[in-house]
Give the backbone structure.
Amino acid sequence: MFFIFGISSGEKKLDFVQTLLCSHCGKYGRLELYMTYMYFSLFFITIFKWNKRYLVKSTCCNTVFELDKERAKQILSGEQVTITDVDLHIPRRTGNVEQYCKNCGYPKQPEFEYCPKCGCKL
């Protein structure tokens, strides 16, 4: 007898879109909500999920923000929620990165002259 199991990460696009004037780049765009998570599967069936994070992606400049779990739960329960700049923050990344791009928050390496995400001079 053998078991097929595994631990992996997943991403699910949630049914939420909001149009706004982006405070990051100053252009009109949409906010799209995603849930990322880790999961344990047995025979290719998800048994349980953990480490859920709710991320909001801006379509105008592709900046990724993290959304508070309480605000995300309101959206998932069907409430009419408007996301504001107060609800969003750029998630911190760990590693040997010393600084972040001031325009989009992408982690930069010391050898970068331009941001690989938005093209802004660092």
Notes: Residues 69-76 form the longest helix (8 residues). The radius of gyration is 17 Å. The mean pLDDT is 85. The first strand starts at residue 5 and ends at 21.
